[in-house]
Amino acid sequence: MIEHKQIYIDGQWVDASGDGITHLVNPANEEVFATVPMSTPDDVDKAIRAARKAFIPWSQTPSAERKAYIDAICAKLTERKDELASLISQEMGIPVHFALGIQVMGPISGLSIFGDLAATMDETREHDGGYITVKEPIGVCSFITPWNFPLFQVVAKVGPALAAGCTCILKPSEQTPLSTFIFAEVCAEVGLPAGVFNLVPGKGSVIGDVISSHPEVDLVSFTGSTEVGVDIAKSAAGTVKRVCQELGGKSPFIIAEDAPVAKAVKYVVKDSMFNSGQMCVQLSRILVHESQYEEAVEVAKTVAESLAVGDPNDKGTFLGPLSSMQARNSVVRFIEKGVAEGARLVTGGTELPEGVEKGAYVRPTIFADVNNDMSIAREEIFGPVLCFIPYKDEAEAIAIANDTDFGLSSGVWAENKDTQMRIARQLRAGQVKVNGPAFSFAAPFGGYKMSGNGREWGASGLTEYTEEKAILVGG
Ligand code: NAP
Ligand code: MG
After folding, report:
1. CA-based diameter of the chain, in Å?
2. Prediction pTM value
3. Is the CB of 377 under 6 A from ligand 1?
4. 475 pLDDT tier (thresholds 50, 70, 90)
């Protein structure tokens, strides 16, 4: 049993002021395996005040020193990579062999990019007309992160904050805080000055409001559901702080008429079933030309049925359980709704996968003959469930793709370069993946419409944490 007893404020491990604890349940076996203390609004207030006190000195630290701290954090996290992968797997069910790459080593590489970008904070630009512009850190930042990428989403915020010279407090998801304890331990080990990074695990419903409304916080960055993101923006509004929202999605994938349909379907089914489909960027609405539609559905069935579902510790496993029994119940309700709405259930469904007797497992599920008005095509399911929708021509494909409240990710598979760019430029989403690329930790990432208003990672991610100052010099 892992028992965390303290939270990290002002460079010290301290007791939380209340006696709340949360029990973490491994979704693969439904057993409690860890406990974590829950911070109170008072603890959050202390953490924010520590971050405020630390801000001016940290913001004046030379950028080379900030880079050195970031590099040292990367090195220490790398030393503990296997422990991190194992903890994240136990918290949320992702197979350990996938967790090591996408949940641990990927974010570390993204963090190291922020180390390299720290020096860009020193740039001074002289403009025609006699003025100078400089970038300065925005100040104290508070972060609220989701459970589906526990370290990844933390690094996307803490990385640029440290590089810019901001100080921060972090509230990780109640379900997946363990990697953030290691992050705090590492910050302490490398000697990061007190108050620069503070960890306040707790319940969003209890401490979320103080995190977003506190007058000493200059920026709140939230990743999670659109519903909670809207509440956070409302509670932040009274203090005119910057609000960065990274929210949900319902992303389309257009298979162009000239595409090798089997190859494109194979890619998208595997990509979208990764992390058991619990990804804001999941390409969940697959648009296929009517002439290739039945072939696409047949290939999707074969691919979905070939993906191994089971023990997250087994190297052959592709899909572990969902993050919790609650998550499984929610996805099962969507599958039932899809059937009730008249979509064709091609494979998968509500039963536990064959050979599995307990745990939050869901079968990889493919729906065909989906109409874009059905709730399975409009709402974020957050599980291994994909909708195949036929289209008549490219204009209709683009219209269906953009007929959504969201705009986070999108994809296209086309052979012809002009077709690739023509479709990519018309999709109303923050990213377009053409012909199955890997994730980039340097490219800007964020949403259009109800998917959010921020941009994370790389140089654009750093910009969110800066204010631009104009210095006008008279005669
Ligand atoms: P969630 O329920 O919105 O929770 C996200 C975070 O908000 C958690 O830390 C949660 O704390 C906290 N929270 C809950 N209620 C709150 C409140 N009233 N005030 C302040 N904070 C509150 O989302 P989730 O279920 O963890 O994650 C899945 C969602 O995240 C999906 O919609 C997904 O698309 C989205 N997501 C978006 C991105 C992106 O980059 N755009 C990336 C990953 C995930 P508790 O743990 O205590 O509930
Ligand atoms: Mg939630």
Report:
1. 81
2. 0.97
3. no
4. confident
